[in-house]
Amino acid sequence: xxxxxxxxxxxxxxxxxxxxVCGEGELLLQVxxxxxxxxDLMIYSGKHKRxxxxxxxxxxxxxxxxxxxxxxxxxxQVGERVVVNPNYACxxxxxxxxxxxxxxxxxxxxxxxxxxxxxxYVKVALKSAVPxxxxxxxxxxxxxxxxAVAVRAVAIGQVGVGSSIVxxxxxxxxxxxxxxxxxxxxxxxxxxxxxxxxxxxxxxLGFQVLAPDEASRAHVMDLTHGRxxxxxxxxxxxxxxxxxxxxxxxxxxxxxxxxxxxxxxVVDLGVLGYSELEIRGTTVYTPAEFAQxxxxxxERRLDPTLVVTNRLALTEGVHAIExxxxxxxxxxxxxxxx
Length: 338
Prior knowledge:
Elements: E1 2-8, E2 11-16, E3 26-36, H1 38-44, E4 55-56, E5 60-69, E6 81-84, E7 87-88, H2 94-97, E8 108-109, E9 121-125, E10 129-131, H3 138-142, H4 144-157, E11 164-168, H5 172-183, E12 188-192, H6 196-204, E13 208-210, H7 217-223, E14 229-234, H8 239-248, E15 249-257, H9 269-274, E16 278-281, H10 287-298, E17 308-313, H11 317-325, E18 332-336
Parallel strand pairs: 11-12, 11-14, 12-13, 14-15, 15-16, 17-18
Antiparallel strand pairs: 1-2, 1-4, 3-5, 3-9, 3-18, 5-6, 6-10, 7-8
């Protein structure tokens, strides 16, 4: 079989790889769909701190079980359609025992620390498989993982009925966060995005959209009738976004950092203290939030596939990642295995 293998900085290849062998407590999954994430671009550029070559990339993937071994998870049988929660942890540390395995110091991720889903077959732990309701298609399922990131961010942000929201960054994670915030009851959701292509995509989803140079505090105060913004989600992860977050959020407001910052930024702690702002970080999601995301899709509370702009064969994945790294106009790209 052929998989997309990362061999080092800017060295990504579609090449023959061995079909994985299912071990005890594992299942073998025939991949149906996989999604390209910004983390894949970080790995491709050599900026990911944990990834070690050679590795088959891909941590957003779904498919059908073709083999399983072990006595656990009787509900996950051969022929079952599943989506994979790609995070795994030690299970024994203080964080894991407190239900915070998603930030375990020994956590790993399929497609980063071990081989992932950019191949026709992948093996994963039985406990990583989440059965799909019949209402959820494979394309919808491949969006469950990034949707779970948004679900956790909205939970940490404590979005409620009547909240006013700014999302900085109109990529897939930013747009999914905006969608989940709307479902949670936000009365106004504003997306700030520099790329015209992504601004148009956000606009097509029914959000008010501004370019960064239009997003002055005075303008945003006017849009919120002088009330100010309750909450800012930073889904951009660039220094200007950090500054904008501090400028736009109201006093006693909240800022949630979703993006992975690649460099330190300067934060004015005077403003933080004087305005009694709250800044929260968030990373990935808990198993409960992953399951909640499946429910949101199955119940038709939102349609995550609205952020999909390109559907390609798995064999086109290398070219897609290369193009994205050079600024290709796109939302979410979904790869389909033949």
